[in-house]
Amino acid sequence: MNQMTCTHIKYPHIEPPSLRLQLREVFSGIYLSDLMQWNSIPVPDKINHKTIVIIPGFCGGDMSVSPLKKYLRKQGHNAYSWGLGINHSQIEKLFKPLVKRIKHLSDKHGEPVSLIGWSLGGIFARELARYEPKYINRVVTMGSPVIVGPRITALRKLSGLFGWDLEQIEHDMIARFAIPIEHPITAIYSKLDGIVSWQACIDHWSPRVQHHEVSTSHIGMGFSKEVYRVISHSLAR
Predict the structure, then answer these.
(1) Would strands 185-190 and 113-118 be described as parallel, antiparallel, or unpaired?
(2) In the chain, what are the domains?
(3) Which distant-in-sequence residues (6+ apart) come within 8 Å of 217 by Cβ?
(4) Is 201:146 a contact under the CB 8 Å cutoff?
(5) Cβ(116)–Cβ(231) below 8 Å
(6) Average model confidence (pLDDT) for the chain?
(7) Mapped to the 3 state alphabet, what secondary structure does 148-178 carry?
(8) 154 vs 177: CA distance, rounded Å
(9) How many CA atoms are closer than 13 Å to the CA of 170, on its beta-carbon side?
(10) For tag attachment on the chain, is the N or C end more exposed, with fewer CB atoms within 10 Å?
(11) What HEC string does the chain produce?
């Protein structure tokens, strides 16, 4: 994809999730019950053990991705959290330390790293694959917007509080498509997502993307058997 093409990316008008879906996120804790039933999640016939780094969503940290990390370690993967504390969204402060961790784990295990990113963490994962492809094997995103940015999320009205320039972020997200992500991408999305509009999670431009629709809330993605099953089978490829 060249620069001229990427600057003329067209996408449908997208609105933030409805208030009904936003309120539904409050009850997402019910998905915690799924964690007691890991053995009921179908796993691939053959598991290709991988080195994995899980990047949390906005305001999330290592604890938020701990259940997924434990699930993947149970399958024999070398799964790690990102180890950088809370994801405060300031990518200019987090990107270099994250690259350093990815390189360290890639060298330690002698293989490229698979990245799993939840929401904003998925945006980070995509940019790592775009700009540091040597150290990356594949990307899995969970409810991560690939276009528009915070404007189509439930947090849009808080953009001033977090110092987000919505117009600039939207422009930058589109401009990044000038450099395509060549690695495989598994993009998980839900039409029940009350934080990020599902339409913004659909990637029509990356050459090796597969989309998987699930029936869970945005917060529930981190604890859903359905999501874990998709991740497990994606890593087996």
Answers:
(1) unpaired
(2) 3-36+46-235 (3.40.50.1820)
(3) 21, 24, 25, 27, 28, 31, 190, 192, 193, 194
(4) yes
(5) yes
(6) 87
(7) CCHHHECCHHHHHHHCCCHHHHHHHHHHHHH
(8) 24
(9) 16
(10) C
(11) CCHHHHCCCCCCCCCCCCHHHHHHHHHHHHHHHHHHHHHHCCCCCCCCCCEEEEECCCCCCHHHHHHHHHHHHHCCCEEEECCCCCCCCCHHHHHHHHHHHHHHHHHHHCCCEEEEEECHHHHHHHHHHHHCHHHEEEEEEECCCCCCCHHHECCHHHHHHHCCCHHHHHHHHHHHHHCCCCCCEEEEEECCCCCECHHHHCCCCCCCEEEEEECCCCHHHHHCHHHHHHHHHHHCC
For the record, the structure tokens of 228 come out as: 């874990």
Cα 14 versus chain centre, distance: 19
- Structure-block tokens of residue 103: 């390189």
pLDDT beyond 50 at 33: yes
| pTM for the full predicted model | 0.89
Side chain identity, residue 76: G
pLDDT given for residue 176 in this prediction: 87
